[in-house]
Amino acid sequence: MREKGGDIMSAETVRIIGNVSFRLTLDPGVWIFDDRRVHMENVFTDRAEAQVISEAEKMARAWNRQRTGKKPQSNQNIVHIDRKDLTEHSLGIPLEPFLQNASPSEDAKSLIVRQEDGHEERISLTEAMSAILAFSEKGKPLKETGPVHFYYGDGSNHHNPIQNVTELIVE
After folding, report:
1. Which of 55, 70, 82, 152 has a C-alpha 20 to 30 A away from that of 166?
2. Are 95 and 129 in contact (CB under 8 A)?
């Protein structure tokens, strides 16, 4: 546990605070179950190709549903996890959905990425919307340099991500 501004928070979480309607506490430990996760090994090299594959997969699923008829609606959450994701791959997740859920104010213009040692990087909120938060390396949580690594959406810091990220502050 670490103490920050009177709040006690887990060393494994990241907060989104600042000029937002809703403060969020993110727990990267649960992102392994999130369908939005991406493989960091190729996220910057074939983003366009991944988008095309994703669209093709959506169309294939829709086609299969049409061919086989409608299934009864289920209230169960079905999570599909490839064992290799858990044990071999480095994974990340887009930051955009979390920023959107925090609801930045209309006058918010930037995001400060604060590291555990207090160092801060400021980027535009527009740039932040395309960022990726890495949460595992080769199947292991980022214990030493985490809880997350911050990658710019354009991949410009692909070989040198911002590490030990503890807070994302919307200004």
Report:
1. 82
2. yes
108: containing domain:
2-44+79-170
pLDDT at 21 over 60: yes
Q: Is the pTM of this model over 0.85?
A: no
- Closest by Cα among 104, 83, 99 to 133: 99
Is 63 inside any structural domain? no
Rounded Cα–Cα distance for residues 23 and 122 (Å): 19
Q: Is residue 51 part of a domain?
A: no
Quick check: is 142 in a domain? yes
Number of domains in the chain: 1
Q: Give tens-digit pLDDT for 80-101.
A: 556 665 677 889 999 999 999 9
Q: Which residue has the tokens 């403060």?
A: 23
In DSSP notation, 106-151 reads TT--EEEEEETTS-EEEEEHHHHTT-EEEEEETTEE-TTT-SEEEE
